[in-house]
Amino acid sequence: MDIKITEELDNTLKDNGFKKEEIQELIANAEASGTKLKARDGNVTIAKGGSDNLTVYAVYSPDELLDVYAHKMNILGLTGGELNEIDYDDASEWACAKCGEIALERNVDMTYMGVTRPGPGLVCPKCDEFYVSDGVAKTLKTAEAILEEKRA
Amino acid sequence: MPAKDYAPIDQNWLEEAGSLWTTPWVDKPSDRVIVDPIILSHAASLFRKNAGYFYQNPDEAIRMVCHACELYDVTPVGHYLYADYWGQDYGAEIKVQTNSPPGITKRPIKTAEDVDNFEVLDVDELTKGPTLTTHYKALDTCKEEFPHMFAPITQLGGTMEVATNWAAIEDVFMWMITEPELVDKLCVKAGDHMVNACKATSERYGANVMITGSVIASGDLMDTEQIKRFGFQPVSRAVRKVLNSGAGPGIYYHLCGNHTDDFEMWKNAPMSPFTIVQIGYDGQNIFPTSKLVEHFGDRCTCFGTVDTKLIDRGTPAQVYEQAKEQVTAGKDSPRGFILGTACECPTNAPPVNVHALVKAAKDHGKYEKF
Ligand SMILES: [Zn+2]
Question: In this predicted complex, what is the ipTM?
Protein backbone atom coordinates (compact mmCIF):
# COMPACT_ATOMS: atom_id res chain seq x y z
CA MET A 1 0.00 0.00 0.00
CA ASP A 2 1.50 3.27 -1.09
CA ILE A 3 0.38 5.95 1.29
CA LYS A 4 0.90 9.64 0.81
CA ILE A 5 2.37 11.62 3.70
CA THR A 6 2.07 15.37 3.34
CA GLU A 7 5.10 17.48 4.13
CA GLU A 8 3.23 19.09 7.01
CA LEU A 9 2.41 15.76 8.65
CA ASP A 10 5.92 14.50 7.95
CA ASN A 11 7.29 17.48 9.92
CA THR A 12 4.89 16.73 12.76
CA LEU A 13 6.09 13.12 12.74
CA LYS A 14 9.70 14.25 12.97
CA ASP A 15 8.87 16.70 15.77
CA ASN A 16 7.30 13.87 17.75
CA GLY A 17 10.13 11.44 17.11
CA PHE A 18 8.32 9.14 14.67
CA LYS A 19 10.09 7.80 11.61
CA LYS A 20 8.19 7.74 8.34
CA GLU A 21 9.44 4.20 7.64
CA GLU A 22 8.18 2.96 11.02
CA ILE A 23 4.73 4.30 10.32
CA GLN A 24 4.70 2.78 6.84
CA GLU A 25 5.72 -0.56 8.31
CA LEU A 26 3.06 -0.31 11.01
CA ILE A 27 0.41 0.27 8.36
CA ALA A 28 1.75 -2.54 6.17
CA ASN A 29 1.58 -4.94 9.14
CA ALA A 30 -1.97 -3.95 9.96
CA GLU A 31 -3.03 -4.32 6.34
CA ALA A 32 -1.44 -7.77 6.19
CA SER A 33 -2.86 -9.06 9.49
CA GLY A 34 -6.21 -7.27 9.40
CA THR A 35 -5.70 -6.14 13.00
CA LYS A 36 -7.05 -2.61 12.69
CA LEU A 37 -10.16 -0.53 13.25
CA LYS A 38 -12.27 0.78 10.41
CA ALA A 39 -14.61 3.72 10.74
CA ARG A 40 -18.20 2.48 10.66
CA ASP A 41 -19.01 5.53 8.62
CA GLY A 42 -16.41 6.47 6.01
CA ASN A 43 -13.13 5.12 4.80
CA VAL A 44 -10.72 5.76 7.65
CA THR A 45 -8.57 3.14 9.37
CA ILE A 46 -6.64 3.04 12.65
CA ALA A 47 -3.63 0.74 12.82
CA LYS A 48 -1.48 0.22 15.88
CA GLY A 49 2.02 -0.96 16.55
CA GLY A 50 5.05 -0.22 18.67
CA SER A 51 6.20 -1.87 21.87
CA ASP A 52 5.19 -2.27 25.53
CA ASN A 53 6.81 1.10 26.19
CA LEU A 54 5.13 2.99 23.39
CA THR A 55 1.97 2.14 21.50
CA VAL A 56 1.81 4.01 18.21
CA TYR A 57 -1.34 4.55 16.14
CA ALA A 58 -1.63 5.60 12.52
CA VAL A 59 -4.91 6.97 11.17
CA TYR A 60 -5.21 6.83 7.42
CA SER A 61 -7.52 6.89 4.45
CA PRO A 62 -6.89 4.63 1.42
CA ASP A 63 -4.39 7.07 -0.01
CA GLU A 64 -3.24 9.39 2.75
CA LEU A 65 -1.86 9.33 6.27
CA LEU A 66 -4.13 11.53 8.41
CA ASP A 67 -2.69 11.42 11.92
CA VAL A 68 -0.23 9.64 14.15
CA TYR A 69 -0.41 9.49 17.95
CA ALA A 70 0.99 7.38 20.74
CA HIS A 71 0.86 6.59 24.45
CA LYS A 72 3.38 5.17 26.88
CA MET A 73 0.88 3.55 29.23
CA ASN A 74 0.74 -0.11 28.34
CA ILE A 75 -2.73 -1.65 28.01
CA LEU A 76 -3.02 -4.89 29.99
CA GLY A 77 -6.64 -5.89 29.43
CA LEU A 78 -10.17 -5.11 30.48
CA THR A 79 -10.66 -3.35 33.80
CA GLY A 80 -12.41 -5.79 36.12
CA GLY A 81 -11.11 -8.69 34.00
CA GLU A 82 -14.12 -9.53 31.87
CA LEU A 83 -16.54 -8.05 29.40
CA ASN A 84 -19.71 -7.93 31.47
CA GLU A 85 -22.98 -6.30 30.53
CA ILE A 86 -23.07 -2.58 31.06
CA ASP A 87 -25.92 -0.13 31.28
CA TYR A 88 -25.11 2.37 28.59
CA ASP A 89 -24.54 2.48 24.87
CA ASP A 90 -20.86 1.63 24.52
CA ALA A 91 -20.78 1.22 20.73
CA SER A 92 -17.98 3.36 19.29
CA GLU A 93 -17.68 4.85 15.81
CA TRP A 94 -15.23 2.07 14.94
CA ALA A 95 -15.44 -1.59 13.97
CA CYS A 96 -12.82 -4.32 14.10
CA ALA A 97 -11.62 -4.95 10.53
CA LYS A 98 -10.77 -8.55 11.31
CA CYS A 99 -14.10 -9.81 12.68
CA GLY A 100 -16.48 -6.98 11.86
CA GLU A 101 -17.64 -6.46 15.47
CA ILE A 102 -18.30 -2.92 16.60
CA ALA A 103 -15.49 -1.74 18.88
CA LEU A 104 -16.79 -1.01 22.38
CA GLU A 105 -15.89 1.95 24.56
CA ARG A 106 -14.73 0.17 27.71
CA ASN A 107 -12.32 0.77 30.54
CA VAL A 108 -9.01 -1.00 30.13
CA ASP A 109 -6.24 -1.38 32.68
CA MET A 110 -3.11 0.47 31.76
CA THR A 111 0.26 0.34 33.42
CA TYR A 112 3.11 2.84 33.48
CA MET A 113 6.06 3.27 35.86
CA GLY A 114 4.71 0.54 38.11
CA VAL A 115 1.24 2.08 38.44
CA THR A 116 -1.85 0.31 37.08
CA ARG A 117 -5.06 2.25 36.62
CA PRO A 118 -8.06 2.23 34.26
CA GLY A 119 -8.37 4.24 31.08
CA PRO A 120 -10.95 4.60 28.31
CA GLY A 121 -10.22 2.08 25.58
CA LEU A 122 -11.71 0.84 22.33
CA VAL A 123 -12.16 -2.91 22.61
CA CYS A 124 -12.92 -5.57 20.03
CA PRO A 125 -15.09 -7.94 22.07
CA LYS A 126 -14.19 -10.92 19.90
CA CYS A 127 -10.50 -10.53 19.12
CA ASP A 128 -9.47 -9.11 22.51
CA GLU A 129 -7.70 -6.24 20.80
CA PHE A 130 -7.40 -2.86 22.48
CA TYR A 131 -6.99 0.61 21.04
CA VAL A 132 -7.37 4.21 22.22
CA SER A 133 -8.68 7.23 20.35
CA ASP A 134 -6.50 10.24 19.50
CA GLY A 135 -8.30 12.38 22.10
CA VAL A 136 -7.77 9.80 24.80
CA ALA A 137 -4.07 9.65 23.83
CA LYS A 138 -3.97 13.38 24.60
CA THR A 139 -5.59 12.73 27.99
CA LEU A 140 -3.09 9.92 28.62
CA LYS A 141 -0.19 12.22 27.80
CA THR A 142 -1.23 14.46 30.69
CA ALA A 143 -1.60 11.41 32.93
CA GLU A 144 1.83 10.12 31.91
CA ALA A 145 3.41 13.50 32.68
CA ILE A 146 1.88 13.42 36.18
CA LEU A 147 3.14 9.87 36.76
CA GLU A 148 6.62 10.81 35.51
CA GLU A 149 6.74 13.75 37.90
CA LYS A 150 5.29 11.96 40.92
CA ARG A 151 6.95 8.57 40.49
CA ALA A 152 10.41 10.02 39.80
CA MET B 1 -8.53 39.52 54.23
CA PRO B 2 -5.79 40.27 51.70
CA ALA B 3 -3.01 37.72 51.21
CA LYS B 4 -0.57 39.64 53.42
CA ASP B 5 -2.75 39.15 56.50
CA TYR B 6 -2.30 35.36 56.53
CA ALA B 7 0.60 33.64 58.27
CA PRO B 8 2.84 31.81 55.80
CA ILE B 9 1.96 28.20 55.04
CA ASP B 10 4.43 25.83 56.72
CA GLN B 11 6.46 24.45 53.83
CA ASN B 12 7.43 21.30 55.71
CA TRP B 13 3.79 20.54 56.31
CA LEU B 14 2.99 21.23 52.68
CA GLU B 15 5.68 18.85 51.49
CA GLU B 16 4.59 16.10 53.87
CA ALA B 17 0.88 16.54 53.05
CA GLY B 18 1.74 16.62 49.34
CA SER B 19 3.48 13.28 49.70
CA LEU B 20 0.50 11.73 51.53
CA TRP B 21 -1.83 13.12 48.88
CA THR B 22 0.23 11.67 46.04
CA THR B 23 0.07 8.08 47.32
CA PRO B 24 -3.54 7.21 46.42
CA TRP B 25 -2.98 8.31 42.82
CA VAL B 26 0.45 6.96 41.96
CA ASP B 27 1.09 4.29 44.60
CA LYS B 28 4.16 6.12 45.88
CA PRO B 29 4.67 4.82 49.42
CA SER B 30 4.04 7.16 52.32
CA ASP B 31 3.10 6.77 55.95
CA ARG B 32 -0.68 6.93 56.14
CA VAL B 33 -4.02 7.70 54.53
CA ILE B 34 -4.72 11.38 53.84
CA VAL B 35 -8.05 12.95 54.80
CA ASP B 36 -10.18 15.16 52.58
CA PRO B 37 -13.12 16.59 54.54
CA ILE B 38 -14.23 18.57 51.44
CA ILE B 39 -13.73 21.95 53.04
CA LEU B 40 -15.56 24.79 51.36
CA SER B 41 -17.54 27.38 53.31
CA HIS B 42 -16.55 25.60 56.53
CA ALA B 43 -13.21 27.38 56.06
CA ALA B 44 -15.04 30.70 56.35
CA SER B 45 -16.41 29.73 59.75
CA LEU B 46 -12.82 29.32 60.98
CA PHE B 47 -12.25 32.96 60.05
CA ARG B 48 -15.54 34.10 61.59
CA LYS B 49 -17.05 34.76 58.21
CA ASN B 50 -20.31 33.39 56.91
CA ALA B 51 -21.11 31.26 53.87
CA GLY B 52 -22.43 34.28 51.95
CA TYR B 53 -19.09 36.00 52.35
CA PHE B 54 -17.30 32.86 51.20
CA TYR B 55 -19.25 32.62 47.97
CA GLN B 56 -19.05 36.31 47.14
CA ASN B 57 -15.30 36.51 47.57
CA PRO B 58 -13.74 33.66 45.62
CA ASP B 59 -10.16 34.87 46.03
CA GLU B 60 -10.49 35.13 49.78
CA ALA B 61 -12.42 31.90 49.90
CA ILE B 62 -9.54 29.99 48.37
CA ARG B 63 -7.09 31.55 50.84
CA MET B 64 -9.31 30.50 53.72
CA VAL B 65 -9.63 26.96 52.34
CA CYS B 66 -5.88 26.57 51.83
CA HIS B 67 -5.15 27.78 55.35
CA ALA B 68 -7.87 25.52 56.76
CA CYS B 69 -6.14 22.59 55.03
CA GLU B 70 -2.95 23.41 56.91
CA LEU B 71 -4.77 23.90 60.19
CA TYR B 72 -6.44 20.49 59.98
CA ASP B 73 -3.54 18.70 58.27
CA VAL B 74 -5.66 17.48 55.36
CA THR B 75 -5.46 17.22 51.55
CA PRO B 76 -3.49 20.25 50.35
CA VAL B 77 -5.88 21.26 47.58
CA GLY B 78 -7.64 24.58 47.22
CA HIS B 79 -11.21 23.57 46.46
CA TYR B 80 -13.70 26.19 45.48
CA LEU B 81 -17.21 25.49 44.34
CA TYR B 82 -20.76 26.05 45.35
CA ALA B 83 -24.13 24.48 44.89
CA ASP B 84 -25.93 26.27 42.09
CA TYR B 85 -23.47 26.15 39.24
CA TRP B 86 -24.34 26.92 35.62
CA GLY B 87 -27.76 28.50 36.10
CA GLN B 88 -26.69 32.13 35.74
CA ASP B 89 -24.83 31.46 32.50
CA TYR B 90 -28.16 30.67 30.90
CA GLY B 91 -30.13 33.51 32.44
CA ALA B 92 -31.05 32.23 35.90
CA GLU B 93 -31.19 34.69 38.74
CA ILE B 94 -29.26 34.03 41.90
CA LYS B 95 -30.01 35.18 45.41
CA VAL B 96 -27.08 35.69 47.71
CA GLN B 97 -27.76 34.26 51.16
CA THR B 98 -25.95 34.89 54.42
CA ASN B 99 -25.71 31.39 55.76
CA SER B 100 -25.90 29.14 52.71
CA PRO B 101 -24.65 29.02 49.13
CA PRO B 102 -26.32 31.31 46.63
CA GLY B 103 -29.65 29.89 45.53
CA ILE B 104 -31.31 30.14 42.13
CA THR B 105 -34.57 32.06 42.29
CA LYS B 106 -35.53 32.16 38.62
CA ARG B 107 -34.65 29.40 36.19
CA PRO B 108 -34.24 29.78 32.42
CA ILE B 109 -36.32 26.73 31.45
CA LYS B 110 -40.00 26.80 32.29
CA THR B 111 -41.78 24.91 29.54
CA ALA B 112 -41.27 21.96 27.24
CA GLU B 113 -40.73 24.44 24.44
CA ASP B 114 -37.92 26.06 26.42
CA VAL B 115 -36.18 22.69 26.54
CA ASP B 116 -36.35 22.37 22.76
CA ASN B 117 -35.09 25.89 22.19
CA PHE B 118 -32.38 25.73 24.83
CA GLU B 119 -28.91 26.09 23.34
CA VAL B 120 -25.76 24.97 25.11
CA LEU B 121 -23.07 27.65 25.31
CA ASP B 122 -19.76 27.05 23.59
CA VAL B 123 -16.36 27.00 25.31
CA ASP B 124 -15.70 30.72 24.80
CA GLU B 125 -19.10 31.77 26.03
CA LEU B 126 -18.79 29.62 29.13
CA THR B 127 -15.30 30.93 29.86
CA LYS B 128 -16.68 34.47 29.88
CA GLY B 129 -19.83 33.50 31.78
CA PRO B 130 -20.55 34.24 35.44
CA THR B 131 -19.92 30.73 36.75
CA LEU B 132 -16.47 30.22 35.30
CA THR B 133 -15.46 33.87 35.82
CA THR B 134 -16.10 33.40 39.54
CA HIS B 135 -14.70 29.88 39.61
CA TYR B 136 -11.51 30.83 37.75
CA LYS B 137 -10.98 33.83 40.01
CA ALA B 138 -10.65 31.34 42.87
CA LEU B 139 -8.50 28.93 40.87
CA ASP B 140 -6.23 31.70 39.55
CA THR B 141 -5.70 32.95 43.09
CA CYS B 142 -4.82 29.43 44.18
CA LYS B 143 -2.39 28.98 41.30
CA GLU B 144 -0.76 32.33 42.02
CA GLU B 145 -0.57 32.25 45.82
CA PHE B 146 -0.66 28.51 46.61
CA PRO B 147 0.83 26.87 43.51
CA HIS B 148 1.45 23.56 45.28
CA MET B 149 -2.19 23.38 46.33
CA PHE B 150 -3.62 24.06 42.90
CA ALA B 151 -5.85 21.61 41.03
CA PRO B 152 -7.74 22.58 37.84
CA ILE B 153 -11.14 21.45 39.08
CA THR B 154 -14.37 21.86 37.12
CA GLN B 155 -17.47 21.46 39.23
CA LEU B 156 -20.11 19.90 37.06
CA GLY B 157 -22.40 17.76 39.14
CA GLY B 158 -24.22 15.16 37.10
CA THR B 159 -26.70 15.79 34.31
CA MET B 160 -29.64 15.92 36.74
CA GLU B 161 -27.91 18.56 38.86
CA VAL B 162 -27.23 20.71 35.80
CA ALA B 163 -30.77 20.10 34.49
CA THR B 164 -32.36 21.16 37.78
CA ASN B 165 -30.33 24.36 37.83
CA TRP B 166 -31.82 25.14 34.42
CA ALA B 167 -35.39 24.02 35.15
CA ALA B 168 -37.24 23.77 38.45
CA ILE B 169 -36.75 20.40 40.12
CA GLU B 170 -40.52 19.87 40.44
CA ASP B 171 -40.95 20.41 36.69
CA VAL B 172 -38.13 18.00 35.83
CA PHE B 173 -39.60 15.37 38.16
CA MET B 174 -43.04 15.83 36.66
CA TRP B 175 -41.62 15.50 33.12
CA MET B 176 -39.83 12.32 34.16
CA ILE B 177 -43.30 10.81 34.54
CA THR B 178 -45.32 12.64 31.89
CA GLU B 179 -42.70 13.31 29.17
CA PRO B 180 -39.52 11.36 29.88
CA GLU B 181 -38.19 12.06 26.36
CA LEU B 182 -38.09 15.72 27.28
CA VAL B 183 -35.85 14.94 30.25
CA ASP B 184 -33.66 12.84 27.95
CA LYS B 185 -33.23 15.92 25.76
CA LEU B 186 -32.46 18.07 28.76
CA CYS B 187 -29.88 15.59 30.02
CA VAL B 188 -28.20 15.38 26.62
CA LYS B 189 -27.90 19.17 26.65
CA ALA B 190 -26.58 19.08 30.22
CA GLY B 191 -23.99 16.52 29.09
CA ASP B 192 -22.89 18.69 26.14
CA HIS B 193 -22.62 21.62 28.49
CA MET B 194 -20.43 19.57 30.85
CA VAL B 195 -18.09 18.70 27.98
CA ASN B 196 -17.68 22.36 27.02
CA ALA B 197 -17.04 23.40 30.63
CA CYS B 198 -14.30 20.76 30.91
CA LYS B 199 -12.75 21.91 27.66
CA ALA B 200 -12.71 25.48 29.00
CA THR B 201 -10.78 24.45 32.11
CA SER B 202 -8.46 22.19 30.18
CA GLU B 203 -7.66 24.95 27.68
CA ARG B 204 -6.96 27.41 30.47
CA TYR B 205 -4.82 25.23 32.73
CA GLY B 206 -3.58 22.41 30.51
CA ALA B 207 -5.47 19.73 32.43
CA ASN B 208 -8.85 19.25 34.03
CA VAL B 209 -10.32 17.41 36.99
CA MET B 210 -14.07 17.00 36.60
CA ILE B 211 -16.29 16.58 39.61
CA THR B 212 -19.37 14.78 38.42
CA GLY B 213 -21.58 11.90 39.51
CA SER B 214 -25.03 11.75 40.90
CA VAL B 215 -26.48 13.84 43.68
CA ILE B 216 -30.17 14.40 42.92
CA ALA B 217 -30.10 11.14 40.97
CA SER B 218 -29.92 9.04 44.12
CA GLY B 219 -32.17 6.38 45.61
CA ASP B 220 -33.68 9.01 47.91
CA LEU B 221 -35.46 10.72 45.02
CA MET B 222 -35.38 8.47 41.97
CA ASP B 223 -35.76 4.78 41.17
CA THR B 224 -32.93 2.75 39.67
CA GLU B 225 -34.24 2.95 36.09
CA GLN B 226 -34.54 6.73 36.35
CA ILE B 227 -31.04 7.04 37.79
CA LYS B 228 -29.74 4.93 34.92
CA ARG B 229 -31.58 6.86 32.23
CA PHE B 230 -31.17 10.43 33.47
CA GLY B 231 -28.00 10.12 35.52
CA PHE B 232 -25.65 7.26 34.76
CA GLN B 233 -26.11 7.10 30.99
CA PRO B 234 -25.89 10.78 30.06
CA VAL B 235 -23.14 11.36 32.63
CA SER B 236 -21.15 8.42 31.21
CA ARG B 237 -21.59 9.75 27.68
CA ALA B 238 -20.40 13.18 28.75
CA VAL B 239 -17.36 11.85 30.61
CA ARG B 240 -16.45 9.71 27.66
CA LYS B 241 -16.67 12.75 25.37
CA VAL B 242 -14.48 14.75 27.73
CA LEU B 243 -11.82 12.03 27.71
CA ASN B 244 -12.13 11.61 23.94
CA SER B 245 -11.46 15.30 23.51
CA GLY B 246 -8.33 15.24 25.66
CA ALA B 247 -9.87 17.35 28.44
CA GLY B 248 -8.95 15.05 31.37
CA PRO B 249 -7.42 13.33 33.10
CA GLY B 250 -9.08 13.69 36.54
CA ILE B 251 -12.53 12.23 37.23
CA TYR B 252 -14.20 12.43 40.59
CA TYR B 253 -17.47 10.51 40.78
CA HIS B 254 -19.32 12.02 43.71
CA LEU B 255 -22.34 9.83 44.38
CA CYS B 256 -24.14 11.75 47.07
CA GLY B 257 -27.11 10.36 48.97
CA ASN B 258 -28.34 6.76 48.94
CA HIS B 259 -26.98 4.51 46.17
CA THR B 260 -27.82 1.01 47.42
CA ASP B 261 -29.63 0.01 44.22
CA ASP B 262 -27.56 1.79 41.59
CA PHE B 263 -23.96 1.85 42.81
CA GLU B 264 -22.98 -1.24 40.83
CA MET B 265 -23.68 0.37 37.45
CA TRP B 266 -21.06 3.01 38.23
CA LYS B 267 -18.38 0.30 38.22
CA ASN B 268 -18.45 0.57 34.43
CA ALA B 269 -18.61 4.35 34.22
CA PRO B 270 -15.82 5.71 32.02
CA MET B 271 -12.59 5.98 33.95
CA SER B 272 -9.20 7.58 33.42
CA PRO B 273 -5.94 6.77 35.24
CA PHE B 274 -6.91 9.42 37.81
CA THR B 275 -10.40 8.40 38.82
CA ILE B 276 -11.89 8.41 42.29
CA VAL B 277 -15.27 7.13 43.41
CA GLN B 278 -17.09 8.30 46.51
CA ILE B 279 -20.47 6.93 47.59
CA GLY B 280 -22.41 8.60 50.39
CA TYR B 281 -25.00 6.25 51.82
CA ASP B 282 -26.21 2.69 51.71
CA GLY B 283 -29.88 3.15 52.60
CA GLN B 284 -29.93 5.22 55.77
CA ASN B 285 -26.41 4.25 56.77
CA ILE B 286 -23.05 5.50 55.70
CA PHE B 287 -21.80 3.50 52.69
CA PRO B 288 -19.46 0.89 54.19
CA THR B 289 -15.91 1.31 52.93
CA SER B 290 -15.54 -2.48 52.94
CA LYS B 291 -18.28 -2.63 50.29
CA LEU B 292 -16.80 0.27 48.32
CA VAL B 293 -13.41 -1.41 48.20
CA GLU B 294 -14.92 -4.80 47.35
CA HIS B 295 -16.58 -3.35 44.23
CA PHE B 296 -14.27 -0.52 43.16
CA GLY B 297 -10.91 -1.30 44.80
CA ASP B 298 -9.53 -3.18 41.78
CA ARG B 299 -10.71 -0.42 39.46
CA CYS B 300 -9.91 3.03 40.79
CA THR B 301 -9.05 5.11 43.85
CA CYS B 302 -11.68 4.84 46.58
CA PHE B 303 -12.97 7.66 48.75
CA GLY B 304 -14.32 6.32 52.03
CA THR B 305 -16.73 8.49 53.92
CA VAL B 306 -17.84 9.55 57.37
CA ASP B 307 -21.40 10.76 57.79
CA THR B 308 -21.62 14.54 57.44
CA LYS B 309 -24.46 14.52 60.00
CA LEU B 310 -21.98 13.14 62.52
CA ILE B 311 -19.39 15.75 61.54
CA ASP B 312 -22.04 18.42 62.02
CA ARG B 313 -23.90 17.22 65.09
CA GLY B 314 -22.14 14.16 66.48
CA THR B 315 -19.53 13.96 69.19
CA PRO B 316 -15.82 13.72 68.40
CA ALA B 317 -15.92 10.16 69.79
CA GLN B 318 -18.65 9.18 67.31
CA VAL B 319 -16.75 10.71 64.40
CA TYR B 320 -13.56 8.99 65.50
CA GLU B 321 -15.27 5.58 65.79
CA GLN B 322 -16.82 5.71 62.33
CA ALA B 323 -13.66 7.11 60.77
CA LYS B 324 -11.62 4.35 62.40
CA GLU B 325 -13.88 1.67 60.98
CA GLN B 326 -13.87 3.19 57.47
CA VAL B 327 -10.13 3.87 57.29
CA THR B 328 -9.27 0.41 58.60
CA ALA B 329 -11.39 -1.14 55.86
CA GLY B 330 -10.04 1.09 53.11
CA LYS B 331 -6.42 1.99 53.76
CA ASP B 332 -4.82 -0.78 51.73
CA SER B 333 -7.28 -0.68 48.85
CA PRO B 334 -5.22 -1.77 45.80
CA ARG B 335 -5.62 1.42 43.77
CA GLY B 336 -5.46 3.94 46.56
CA PHE B 337 -7.67 5.30 49.29
CA ILE B 338 -8.68 8.66 50.73
CA LEU B 339 -10.78 9.18 53.85
CA GLY B 340 -13.30 12.01 53.85
CA THR B 341 -16.83 13.10 54.47
CA ALA B 342 -19.98 11.94 52.67
CA CYS B 343 -20.43 15.43 51.25
CA GLU B 344 -19.12 18.95 51.82
CA CYS B 345 -18.00 19.63 55.40
CA PRO B 346 -20.95 21.47 56.97
CA THR B 347 -20.30 25.21 57.29
CA ASN B 348 -20.58 25.32 61.05
CA ALA B 349 -19.29 21.86 61.92
CA PRO B 350 -17.36 21.87 65.19
CA PRO B 351 -13.63 21.98 64.37
CA VAL B 352 -13.02 19.26 67.00
CA ASN B 353 -15.06 16.87 64.84
CA VAL B 354 -12.94 17.50 61.77
CA HIS B 355 -9.91 17.05 63.99
CA ALA B 356 -11.31 13.72 65.25
CA LEU B 357 -11.66 12.53 61.65
CA VAL B 358 -8.03 13.36 60.91
CA LYS B 359 -6.90 11.84 64.19
CA ALA B 360 -8.53 8.53 63.27
CA ALA B 361 -6.57 8.47 59.99
CA LYS B 362 -3.34 9.19 61.87
CA ASP B 363 -4.03 6.52 64.49
CA HIS B 364 -5.53 3.81 62.27
CA GLY B 365 -4.69 4.72 58.68
CA LYS B 366 -1.07 3.58 58.51
CA TYR B 367 -0.38 1.68 55.31
CA GLU B 368 0.55 -1.96 55.52
CA LYS B 369 0.68 -2.63 51.79
CA PHE B 370 3.99 -0.86 51.17
ZN1 LIG C 1 -12.37 -8.34 16.18
Answer: 0.95
